[in-house]
Amino acid sequence: MPHISSTLRTVALLALLALTAATLGIHPALDARAQSEPATTTLTVQPIQHTAGEPAILSATITDSSGAAVGDVPLNFYVETDAFGPKLMKVGTAVTDVTGAASVSFDPTWEGENKVTVIFPGNAAYTTSQAETLFEAIGPIEGHVNAEFGIKTIRDWAPLVAFALVIAVWGTLLVVLFRTYRVMRRPRPATEAVPARSPRAGQALPSDER
Amino acid sequence: MNGENPGREAPQPPAGKVSRRRVLGGVGAVVGAAAATVIPLATIGLPSTRATETPTAKRQWGMVIDLRLCDGCEKCTKACQKEHSLPEEHTWLKIVEVPREGGSYFFPKICQQCENPPCLKVCPTAATFKNPEGVILVEQDRCIGCRMCMAACPYEARYFNYEDPIIPAGALDNPMPEFPVPQKKGTVGKCVLCVHNADKGKLPFCVEACSMDALYIADYNSDVMVNGSGHTHQLSKYLYENDAFRYKEELNTSPRVWYIAGHGQDYFEY
Amino acid sequence: MTSIAISHPPYEDAALRPVVNKAGLIWWSIFLGLSAVIAVGLVAYGYQLREGLSVTGLSQRISWGFYISNLVFFIGISYGGAITSAILRLTNAPWRAPLVRLAEAMAVSALLVGAVFPIIDLGRPDHMYHLFIHGQVGSPVLWDVVAISTYLAASLLFIYLPLIPDIALCRDRLAKTSGALRRAMYRVLALGWHGSDEQKRVLNQGMTALAILIIPLAVSVHSVLAWLFGVTVRPGWNSTIFAPYFVIGAMYSGVATVILVLAAFRWAYKLEDYITLKHFRYLSYMMLVLALAYLYFMVSEYLTEGYKLHESTGALLELVLLGKLAPFFWLFVVGGILLPVLVVAVPMTRTIPLLALASLAVVLGMWLKRFLIVVPSLAESITPATKLTIYTPTWVEISITVAAAAAIPWMLMLFFRFFPIISVFEMEEAAEAEVHRREEILRGGN
């Protein structure tokens, strides 16, 4: 075998390495250029089906410009409310899995149209993106339950009982007054012969000490 | 006939016959008793009067106050007093400086808009009532100024008008419970959660005036809370995640105002 | 008129003496003096009506002051009537007979005065009609209005019933010496009384029914007054025993006022023969028991709330027991409870003048105690917002209070110008009952 010179061997090895590096794309200069621009992402919100009495599942998937899933990034879920003008109310945050999907559970608080907005806030590698969808919340949806105002049975019956007592008292007073008035107005029967004063009235009371 | 009683000659009915007078008297008594029972019942009203009806409107207002952010500047108090033409001692929202280890913090004390309000229970004329949105309001025309509500309020959130307020020139003189301006001498006033603003889609004056983003208006029905800068949160989640508490919770007044603790204080140190 | 000429019992003459005799210089000086005091009070109230409650010393923290203390106090002293007339009637105590008219008249005047105070305290009394057309059944203020008016109606009826025979007496005996107006008044108010058995029977039934009714009514009045405070959560007021506490306090101050009024009118109208030391002793024994009962309730209150020191109770107790209000509190304990108890307990000090003085101390002390219940719980804030607020009553509040106190003797003096000061009917009743009792004993062979 003829001896290949060491110089030729080194050059061949280096060329092989460069070819491998180029193939593998690990070119420092090329990569630096790629990192100064975050990749664009696309957010897709899954359509939401809501059934009455159940929470709605809000899911979204994020992919990059080449359609590859972006995993392990947080997605913020908002529902639009009209309290004091349209405002976005954050209802949850979820981190995407390897398939780029994330979901949160949301209890709708009003029937009818709910507008869901999902926002990926962006990071060093990816630009921000958002997507929206509408869904119908199916009722009945119970609103805020107010605290119990006292004990219902007592609230219903106590006033009537108290009122009945008061009427009974006033009734007794009126009966006494009426009876007395009536007996006063009646003249003395002629058969009675009682003097105006009792004969014993002149006696002093039982002994009093001074 | 003996002349014992001057001027008395009451005819006696023949024995065994009921006199007409007796019948009339009996009927009169029964009618009187029935009237005495029914008329007051109808006017006084059975338990579910306006004062105690369950609020059922679309919005159910409340507040959230973030104690981590309040710096005691009192812009909220002053805005409220200015917009409602209140005298200086009527601090419907009062900033209280509470001392504690290592300093002090500021506690905005406001009417708690209780769902089980002591003030409403004791008002003798239902001048204090709950509007359909759950806000406790005072109808000044009915208030007799007995101040029982002030004695009953555990939060000292009600103020009596000892004097007529000074009304700025050109201001309207058309008070109503939702916007009780000007206040009437001899009646009681309190925070109305600016429901007059809410109808027009505006925030309460204090929430708008707060420069620290510490005051939020909350709608319990749609589970949302908004502050003056427009920051919006889901109410139930925010309260849960931030260890919110209510003032004097143990009294079971079920206040609609939540506080976010921040300076290491205990919830029950008041 | 009457065919039998009998001599009039001596107590009848004594009872009618203020009615018959012309008012002398002393009577007129006292009456005019009291009228002047009442006039000042009326002027003060007129001023308050015009200017509003800003003329009082009330503030945002201390929203109840003198007027509410007076309300509780004056309604409280009316209990003297309930005890002397009603309770002693039901227990058949014969010694009550000479006292009942004075006691009941005092009770009615105290009630009338007390019932005015909620109105004086209102910020807008011109809107009071709302209470009647929109009254809320759950409000202690409404319970108050209903209870006081019912009790007032019952008390008026209770004094009127035994008064009917006495008015008939005036009508018959004083016909010749009275003017036409007075005669007409006696005739109308006597309703045609002629002393028949049936009339006496019905009258007695009515009085017994009222005596039974008036006791729970009296208890209810002061209980609802207590619940004005008891339904709140303020330290010092947030107590379950407030109702019996107030009722016992009312009975205590009521009996003391009866003793005071008896002593005063006995001296003024020379009733020494009929209102004797025995009466004062019996009444003061009752006062002693009530004093100790009140002390018991007070100790129970302070002990249970002082043990727990819930919320701002600590600050409240320090204020009342050790701080700015401590002199008044201990003055009440010593002068309003301990000294009167001693005066009654020690036989040597159980004389009419000393008992009257002790009763005066009780009455003044109980007013102070009512003040110490109402104001300190408001003075100590229940939020961190304010600390201690000072309450300085103004001349308006003080004049109205003094006028109210003067109104009671004023009304009594006027009343006894027209109606007998001793209930002749009940004296007769007691005498007959005593004779029957003695006959029973003799017949029974004991």
Topology of this structure?
The complex is a heterotrimer of chains A (210), B (270) and C (446).
Chain A: H1 6-24, H2 28-35, E1 41-45, E2 56-64, E3 74-81, E4 87-95, E5 101-106, E6 112-120, E7 129-137, H3 152-185
Chain B: H1 20-44, E1 61-66, H2 75-83, E2 93-100, E3 103-110, H3 118-122, E4 128-130, E5 136-138, H4 148-152, E6 159-160, E7 188-189, H5 195-198, H6 205-209, E8 215-219, E9 224-227, E10 232-234, H7 235-241, E11 244-245, E12 257-260
Parallel strand pairs in B: 1-12
Antiparallel strand pairs in B: 1-8, 2-3, 4-5, 6-7, 8-9, 9-10, 11-12
Chain C: H1 10-20, H2 25-51, H3 66-77, H4 79-90, H5 100-121, H6 130-133, H7 140-173, H8 180-190, H9 197-230, H10 242-268, H11 277-308, H12 313-322, H13 326-345, H14 352-374, H15 376-379, H16 395-418, H17 424-444
How does this model look, in words?
- Helix content of chain A is 29%, strand content 26%.
- Chain A has 210 residues and is an alpha+beta fold.
- A 4-stranded antiparallel sheet of chain A has the order 4-3-6-7, with no helix packed on it. A 3-stranded antiparallel sheet of chain A has the order 1-2-5, with no helix packed on it.
- In chain A, strand 3 and strand 4 (87-95) form a beta hairpin.
- Chain A is rod-shaped.
- Chain B starts with 19 loop residues before the first helix and ends in a 10-residue tail after the last strand.
- In chain B, strands 10-9-8-1-12-11 form a 6-stranded mixed sheet. Chain B has a two-stranded antiparallel ribbon with strand order 2-3.
- Chain B is elongated.
- Chain B has a single domain (20-260), classed as Alpha-Beta Plaits (2-Layer Sandwich), CATH 3.30.70.20.
- Mean pLDDT of chain B is 84; it is low at 1-10 and 42-48.
- Chain B is of the alpha+beta class and 270 residues long.
- Chain C has 446 residues and is mainly alpha-helical.
- The two termini of chain C are 43 Å apart.
- Chains in contact: A-B, A-C, B-C.
- The interface between A and C is large, with 38 and 54 residues.
